[in-house]
Specification:
By secondary structure, the protein is of the alpha/beta class. The protein has seven helices and six strands. Strands 2-1-3-4-5-6 form a six-stranded parallel beta sheet, with helices on both faces.
Length: 171
């Protein structure tokens, strides 16, 4: 019997199936195809991680996260990570975001890390991995600056930078 549960909310069948195949040996995987089904699942299940596509039918990912008073750690894996979405994910304290298409191994590694570190209180933080497919192939290092919204930083780091420079920052 599995001790950890992961909810995958993604309408893309091929991506979903690949994640299920990679995660199911270690975790109990629950599937969801629509955003408006997730609140009921969260009430019913004690989840350790929500893997979320932002472009869901029924209720989009950002609207869903805004409605949830309590939730498990969230790993956003989406091709809909716009500048607006990045700001919303930071404001909503989403733990991590990866832009599609992303290697399944990268998603699985990040999911495993989030599940195993969820019990450690770290405060709100959000890391945005917005590498393009070309950057993945070329071995781009996350955190190195390659253009707007390509910088990887936690909310805590951004706040510390703002405090040391005596500037205001709002998420």
């Amino acid at each position: 019997m599995y001790s950890r549960k992961v909810l995958i909310a993604d309408p893309a069948e091929e991506f979903r199936d690949a994640l299920v195949a990679a995660l199911s040996p270690s975790f109990q995987v629950i599937l969801c195809h629509r955003g408006d089904e997730i609140p009921a699942l969260l009430l019913k299940e004690q989840l350790d991680l929500l893997i979320l596509e932002l472009a869901l039918p029924g209720l989009d990912g950002i609207s869903l996260l805004e409605q949830l008073p309590q939730r498990p750690p969230v790993l956003v894996v989406s091709d809909s990570i716009s500048a607006y979405a990045q700001g919303a994910l930071l404001r909503l304290n989403v733990e991590y975001a990866i832009r599609k298409p992303a290697p399944i191994a990268s998603v699985v590694n990040r999911a495993t890390d989030l599940i195993h570190t969820a019990a450690i209180p770290q405060g709100p933080a959000c890391l945005l991995d917005v590498r393009t497919p070309h950057e993945y192939r070329e071995g781009h290092i996350p955190g190195s600056f390659t253009g707007p919204f390509k910088q990887q930083a936690t909310v805590r780091q951004l706040t510390e930078i703002a405090d040391t420079k005596h500037i205001g920052i709002q998420f």
